Amino acid sequence: MRDHVAADAGTASWSDRPECPFLVDRRCSVYAVRPSACRKAHSLAVEACAANAPRIPQSLKLVVGTAALTQGTLGAYAEAGFDASQHEMVSAVLTALDDPTAEARWCAGEPVFGPRGTAV
After folding, report:
1. How far apart are CA 2 and CA 20, in angstroms?
2. Considering the chain, what percentage of its residues have pLDDT values greater than 90?
3. Whole-prediction pTM
4. What long-range pairs does 3-6 form, CB within 8 A, spacing at least 24?
């Protein structure tokens, strides 16, 4: 995860980002608990993905539902007094694993994660 965070630093384009370290044998190892951003990244055409097509067919219902889930969750976090800012998943997970106080501090409303998930 540290290598991923270092390689991802300053990367502006999704296409230039390193492969997710949670992929194991090209499959998501955290699929059951994947974040909403990953849930909306989907394709209805394997051939289009394999060809790196400029347009990948997706389900609008899934994309809109995921956006609603994300906004609702962020709103609920903010209303409960939690830091509701969004973070890059890998660096946020790394921060949570490296800092045994991260969960308690976040639950107390402290912003535990900085820009793109870096520790503050």
Report:
1. 12
2. 24
3. 0.70
4. 4/90, 5/88, 5/90, 5/91, 5/94, 5/117, 5/118
